[in-house]
Amino acid sequence: MSSLNLNKVIFAGHLTANPEMKYTPSGKAVTSFTVASSHTWNSAEGERKKNTTFLRFEAWGKTAEAINQYFSKGRAIYVEGRIQIDKVEKEGAETQWYTKCVVETFKFVDSKGESDNGFEKPVYVGGELPDGEIPDEKDIPF
């Protein structure tokens, strides 16, 4: 019998707020952020409809530091990762479950956070660059 396991998320949209970076007690960076992605369509009656999905992301290490440095509210991002569900139990309260995506890789999809379609020239992020400059893929240190 064959066993297949796959947990893969591909998501693109705009950050709903500035990323929030913290450090674990051992000193590892972790950045949390939410991305909104909208889908539009025409109903059978010809009415334009729109649905927006919000997904929470969590990045670790150098990836967390790069996202925190280069991204802000409204900036377009392309993210690949995996779904993780966390269970939070509080004394005297119901158990709560939270779904998030753990970032494996990401790309810029615009140059200044003001893109119409956002997908004309994606590149990976990394390294130290002057404000507003996007690295070329060959210059990425990780």
Keywords:
mainly beta; single chain; globular; 46% strand; 7% helix; five-stranded mixed β-barrel; 142 residues; OB fold (Dihydrolipoamide Acetyltransferase, E2P); 1 helix
Helix fraction by DSSP (H/I, runs of at least 4): under 10%
Number of helices: 1
Q: What is the beta-strand fraction?
A: over 45%
Q: How widely separated are the two ends?
A: 38 Å
Strand order of the largest sheet: 1-3-4-6-5
What's the gyration radius in Å?
Answer: 18 Å
Overall pLDDT score: 81
Largest sheet: 5 strands, mixed, barrel
Verbal overview:
The protein is mainly beta and 142 residues long. Helix content is 7%, strand content 46%. Residues 113-142 have low confidence and may be disordered. It has a single domain (9-40, 50-134), classed as OB fold (Dihydrolipoamide Acetyltransferase, E2P) (Beta Barrel), CATH 2.40.50. The chain has one helix spanning 61-70, and strands spanning 9-15, 20-23, 29-42, 48-60, 76-88, 96-108, 123-124. A 5-stranded mixed beta barrel has the order 1-3-4-6-5. The longest helix is centred in the middle third of the chain and has 10 residues, at 61-70.
